[in-house]
Amino acid sequence: MALQNKSRLRNTLKKLNRLAPGDEDPRPSAQEALDFLSMMAGEKPVMLLGRGYNEQIWIKGVLQIASDAKLHIVEGPFWDASADAGAGADLPDWYFDHSRAAFAEHRAWYICRARAVADEVAVICETAAITVAQEARLLNYPECCVRAHYGRAAEYQGIWLDLLRRKASGDDARAMELLTGNEPLEPETDEDLNRLEAAMETIPVPFTSINACDACLDGGPNAPANIKSLEGRKLAGEIDEGLVRALS
Fold it and tell me: Is the pTM of this model over 0.70?
């Protein structure tokens, strides 16, 4: 299917490019620009702004461009489908609840072309209830990669819980006091550092904002994340080869 409104997409890209900071690495803002254009083109229901790449001039400018284009903007907390993903089941309630409360303080903006999508997003932000399937569909991510994201996050939190319990000499009541009191907590050994680094390691999928799951990494060109990469590359090429170069 031919891409519609190429001139509008190209004009929007010019506006976005004027916002981009002069970083040595142009890829973060270029990828956000591609996400924005993908949403405008109807390939991505929601463009997520302010999570991951949080350069404030960029965020303010993108919101203005979205407003000028009469797009729908919903401000709300970071989405958290960890419960639906079954992630964090091994974490005690006191730790899991504290982590979710801290996570809920962060804010993002969800930019949508369609009113119906914006209404769905508003409900999610108001209720803090979202499934993995919803998040994957709205962000145009593979469901397997979204589920893996929550698995990595739970593993990361589990490592910090181990460190906290070590500092509390295995006493969960004392560990909870340390956590709620915001006591400083640092990795103490090389093994601690290696575990944290391994849990934080991600493999970005080119021409997307997706971090690949293991199945997609091993799945060849027909893996869901790789198909999304090809779609992103095609869209970028149809709009502007300069965008392709920035992301390559």
Answer: yes
